Amino acid sequence: MKKMIAPLYTFILTIIMVTAYPAIAQNKIIDEIIPIFKTGSSKDLVKYFNTTVELNMNGLQGDFSKNQAEVVVRDFFKKNPPTDFQIVHQGESGSNIKYYIAYYVSNEHNFRVLIKTKGPKDKPIIYGLEFKKD
């Protein structure tokens, strides 16, 4: 009986790790970009962008290339330097699409942020970013 317990524990642990890995990998992007939002670095944030990004930056909206999106985000961060950034909700919509709702706080204004990601669970990318003044 004791000889069966160790393989059984190993099997159960393997099943848990295999089923939990996609959620861990999907959350990896948000764990990496939270500090970027807190420092306001468009140069670092753009590394997570899709080749085309849907932006809505408090009224300025459209589809932008990665390079154009960096300029728009850099301008936003320059005008609204961050003092805090916190994720308040996350969810999934369809296959390989995940969204995050956050609050971005600057000295002048508070913004509600919607971050939309897609792609394989081990390497999701940001395809949409929205900042709306609260």
TrEMBL record:
Entries under Pfam families matching the protein: DUF4783
This protein's name: DUF4783 domain-containing protein
InterPro entries, per the entry: DUF4783
Lineage: Bacteria, Pseudomonadati, Bacteroidota, Cytophagia, Cytophagales
